[in-house]
Amino acid sequence: MKGYMLKGFAAIVLSGLMSSTALAHDPIFSIGPHVLFKNGVEVAAEMESDKAGNEKEQVLALNLKYGITGDWAVGVDLPYVFKDKGYESSNGNGDFAIFTKYRFWRKDSLGLQESAAVLLKVLTDTASGNKTPSLDKGTTDTILGLTYGYEGRKWYRWASARYRFNGTNDLGIDRGDKLLLDLVGGIRPNPTGYLEPDTVWLLELNTEFGQRAELGGNDLSNTGGTEVFVSPGIFWTKRFFAIKAGVQIPVYHDLNGTQNKSDYRARLTFEWHL
Predict the structure, then answer these.
(1) CA-to-CA separations, 97 to 100, 125, 229, in angstroms, rounded
(2) What is the pTM of this model?
(3) In the chain, what are the domains?
């Protein structure tokens, strides 16, 4: 009898450890259902680098997140942007963003968690546009997202959909909304213990559908279209510290008119949970 009790207790402990380590992951270029524990704080430093034709953009961002409950988190993004269009360069504060994520469904079993969450993000019109007009999009945009995650000891998978409502800027241009769909798989080649460093390899399929922009009810020809990316990445963690890195490789373009096609996008993130 005592042996069965010990085995049952060990299973409960193992399940809890898996929920606090293996399940604290989200994709790199898309969204996942992970939220913080109640009163938890996440601080992240993020670096991004994008290139499309002769245009390059680099972003340094500080991300802060707070767990209101074990299923509800809020946060802010504070970016600083460097932009090079080939014929001019600029840098300055990017658009301050606020977001919230709510996990509305969760199912736990031994070493496995399935969950789903919704996301709301508002990208303000606060870039330093007076000094650097090329950084100022001129509108406040909103993103709504829905995500599902299957996170186990060895295998991971996520699916998400986001819809970005782009506003109309001061020139009267309706910038066109965007739909983003993502499928992600992950594997932990070597399942490790709670106190040991942990590595998960990820592969994402990211698809972006952009509507044409409009001016005075007329479509603007060189706007909108579709791009698809295959995105390998890595997620390395040790207790409360994590490093995420990945690169988006374009595999399909169908852009309207004359537009610069994406050459690559890269992201590196350092996370610390308090």
Answers:
(1) 10, 9, 25
(2) 0.89
(3) 2-273 (2.40.160.40)
